[in-house]
Amino acid sequence: MKDYYAKFTGQYSWLIEEEGWVKSLQSVRESQFAIGNIPVQMKYGPEDWKVSYELAVGPRDDRKLVDISGADIMKKPVITKTRKRPYAYILEAKAVKSLAMLKNHKITIEILHKEIEIPVESYKLDSLKRRSEYDHPAAVTVYLSDTTIKKMRKFPKGTYIIRTGQVMGRVICHLLEPETNDNVVHWNAMDAILPRLRRPGARRGRPGRTPSVPEIPIYKLMTPKPLPTNILNY
Description:
- The protein is an alpha+beta fold and 234 residues long.
- It folds into 2 domains: 43-78, no CATH class; 85-201 and 211-231, no CATH class.
- The chain is built from 4 helices and 11 strands.
- It has helices at residues 2-17, 19-32, 96-104, 169-176; strands at residues 37-46, 51-57, 64-71, 74-84, 88-91, 110-112, 116-133, 136-155, 160-163, 218-221, 229-231.
- The strands form 4 sheets. The protein has a 5-stranded antiparallel sheet with strand order 10-5-9-6-11.
- A hairpin with a 2-residue loop joins β7 and β8 (136-155).
- The relative contact order is 0.20.
């Protein structure tokens, strides 16, 4: 009995220490069945515990220490927006720079070996802003409609499929959800294929022609579906 208890205690301690590994396995399972949501936006809120410290106030040559007690420390991540987790993301063959970012993280990528029609969701682009950030002079922040565009779409041979049910599933979601703070759109990997937004006051297209909806070219397959793919070797 003692040996069994020692073994159980050891395994439990290992699970606590390897919490990140356990969460990764849970994420893989959720992604395989397209369960749950993905945090895409967050802010920092107060931790569940308070802090006390001394604060120096006054001019440099006459500073005094003031006791601060029961103060909040603002470093707890608070999720403010989520999106539904897909079974897989779909990228067109021309999304070359985005694929390069995925490859940097050793993500498993598949490629269609024949044309297929797939039910997908995508995001309508409402507006975007560019600003300098780190070594990127024009990092992109996109503003999307809350509701997604749902449709059947034919994808040709050579289209890339990135299933989220893999060890790097959480990284995949973070890179391919356009509203996170560290995704392929933000770091200019999709600049060449982003839709162009019509400027206010600009002339409309041809009379009688329905204008196309500006959508982000990252498509989401929301439910498991057999796909004619091969693993991309790189």
